[in-house]
Amino acid sequence: MKERRVYRGIVVTAVAAMSLMLVTHAASAAVSNPRLARNYIAWLARAMDTCASVVPDGPGPVVSVLLPTNVPGAGCLQQNVATEGTLGMNLGRIWISDRGRIGLFATGFTLGDSLRVRLTLRVTRVVASVKHPLASNQKVTFVDQTIDCPAAGSFLARANGAVVGSTDLGACLAPYGGLAQASTGRTNIEILDAGLVNTANGKLVGHAGVIH
């Protein structure tokens, strides 16, 4: 009798766990994409090295902040070692259309400076067939992709210091260009980070941000 009760308890627990998994799966499957998100526009603030004041041998030197009093009490003197420290920049703006066109406008550079747009993307789209489990027409979120655009070549600064250009998101995602294509149920593209990099050394010049 005791063994039968133990067995029955295991079965009930297993059924409850399966039911919870099914409910969780149903809840996640019901999440819908926004109906509209036409354009992404980001102004660029200057990229700075991270201040890792609590990490031994981190960027520094660590300084104690005396005034003002309503900020953290410690920080690091500004450094641009891991980030770009040689190129100038007066302003920069990146925009991405819902059709996958990427545009850049920036000023304050020197003739011949070579730049690319760097994006970190998380893409969710409907795919025709998957396995584990075997199914069709499923929404799939892919591994985050960090890409530099244009994929070949760069945006070059003009004699007046301006950088103006456009490129295609699908080409930058090659060989995964399908991530940028529209799909049944819409393709959801999260832009986790946007920045501008010096093509010569791969260092960040600017990040999406504001000058306050």
What's the layout of helices and strands?
Layout: H1 2-29, E1 39-46, E2 62-64, E3 74-76, E4 91-97, E5 101-107, E6 114-130, E7 135-141, E8 145-149, E9 155-156, E10 163-168, H2 169-172, E11 188-198, E12 204-208
Antiparallel strand pairs: 1-4, 1-12, 2-3, 4-5, 5-10, 6-7, 6-8, 6-9, 6-11, 11-12
Structure report:
The structure is a single chain. This protein is an alpha+beta fold and 212 residues long. It has a domain at 41-49 and 91-208: Immunoglobulin-like (Sandwich). It is built from two helices and twelve strands, in the order αββββββββββαββ. It has helices at 2-29, 169-172, and strands spanning 39-46, 62-64, 74-76, 91-97, 101-107, 114-130, 135-141, 145-149, 155-156, 163-168, 188-198, 204-208. Strands 1, 4, 5, 6, 7, 8, 9, 10, 11 and 12 form a ten-stranded antiparallel β-sheet that branches. Strands 2-3 form a two-stranded antiparallel ribbon. A hairpin with a 4-residue loop joins β6 and β7. It is globular, with a radius of gyration of 24 Å. It starts with a helix and ends with a strand. The model is unreliable at 10-27 (pLDDT under 50).
